[in-house]
Structure formats: C-alpha cells, structure tokens
Amino acid sequence: MAAEHLLLLPGMMCDERLWESQIRDLPQAIQVPSLAGFENFPDMASSILDSAPEHFGIAGLSMGGILAFELWRQAPERITHLALIDTNPFADTPDRKSLRLQQIETVLNGGLRELAVEQLKPLYLAESHKNNDELLGAILDMAIDLGPEVFRTQSIALRDRTDSVATLADIDCPVSVICGAEDTLCPVDYHEYMAERISGATLVVINDCGHLASMEQPDIVTSELHRLFSAPQKSGNMHAIQ
Asked: N or C: which end of the chain has fewer CB within 10 A?
C-alpha cells in the first residue's frame, strides 16, 4: 500500500525548514520530529517511535538518513517506504571523529556562526548555488536557531554512530536513494553503494545539486518522493540522472 504518514528527518543543524517545499507539496500526513536533545541514535529513534503512527514512510537527509537506518533496525515492520537522501551508511573515520571534537570545542567557545559560515556552508551547496543568498541565509538561520548545545549532542551522536552497511541488505520496503551530483560530504559513490545493496532500490542522481537536495532542487526531490510514497510495492532497480 502507499504511505499515508511520513516522517521527514532533517540533517545536522537543520529543522522543518529543510523540508519546506515537500511539506507544502506532498499530500500525505507529515511529521518532522525534533532531533535535539539526544547524544545517540538508538535513543533518538526510540523517542520518535513512541510518538510515530503505527506505519509510516521515511525520508531522511544526511543525519536524517543515518537515523533512518536506526529506525529500521528497531522497527522494520512499521516502515512502509524509505528515501535515503545525501546520506552515509558508514561509521565515522578516526579523522572525522577528531574533527568533530575540534568543532565542538569551537562552537562551545562561541564560534557557531563562524563555523557555519566558514566551514559548513561552503561544503553544502552545488557550485551554481554557492552565491544564493536565500539558501545560504536559510542554512545559517537553522544552525543559529538550534544553537551550540544541539550542535554538541548531534556531533556526539554522529561521532559514535554504528556502521549501517550490514543493515542495507535487510531493507525490503520500496526505497529511493537520492543525491546531488555535486555532494562532496556524501558523494555519489556512497549512494551507488547503498543502491547496489538494497534490493530493488531506485537511485536518483540530481545535477546542479549538492548536499541539501530538498532545498537545492526541491521540485525534483518532491516528485521522486511522491512517486516513491505512492508505490504499492517495490519498483525495479534503475539509475536515473536528472
């Protein structure tokens, strides 16, 4: 059956504004859970499951996709459809863990705005969007509004997360794996890797798009989510470049 309820899971230091176009244009009942206040993904997922409908589809972007893997491990029978967007099935590398500790120290010493402007925003967008003041402002606003403590807890959760590679073969609902062709944080080959290991998954690679596909190319993402969440069963494996 098609998904009647959706959970849209935002990325690190993002909130419902990440999904503004999808919330407006998708017909299903939508929840965007807060991902604040948790230092690990198992507790984050358990809290979401406590208040989620009995059955639901998921779209998770970046950290939201990592959380989607944990939701699947805890309650696969409740998940009807799954979209993995600009995300990563692997555990943090030692170098990445070390960088997170440095970033936490910077943020807790008052450097959140500086970090967001100088280190994060330049990595998020495709080349054609890097001077888009509206997009850049929205990204910064989300980070500043969520604040240093959310940055700290989300960084710890990401640093200590479980590798999800073994989970991929267990996923048996309709799946779309979506990414920007210019995503440097979670590159295309990560998504090819996931799509090859999830039975029947559809891979969608979007041109002129970086790490925040739902904001950079909202119409393409919404169209693919509409197709996925309307699907009564698995669709055939395909590789689509738009």
From this structure: N
Q: 3-state DSSP call for residue 208?
A: coil
Please tell me the distance from the alpha carbon of residue 31 to that of residue 168, in angstroms, as a whole number: 24
Instruction: State both tokens at 122.
Output: 């330049």
**Closest by CA position to 56, among listed 82, 17, 74, 33:** 82
Evaluate whether 115 touches 103 at the Cβ level (below 8 Å): yes
What is the per-residue DSSP string for 143-165? HHHHHHHHHHHHHHHHHTPPP-H
189 alpha-carbon distance from chain centroid: 16
The answer to whether the beta carbons of residues 186 and 194 sit under 8 Å apart is no
pLDDT tens digits for 118-170? 877 778 999 999 989 999 999 999 999 999 999 999 999 999 999 999 999 99
- Give dist(CA 25, CA 28) in Å, integer: 9
Q: For residue 189, what are its two tokens?
A: 């080959």
Q: Determine the Cα–Cα distance for residues 65 and 87; give it in Å rounded to an integer.
A: 6
By CB neighbour count within 10 A (0-12 exposed, 13-18 middle, 19+ buried), where does 17 fall?
middle
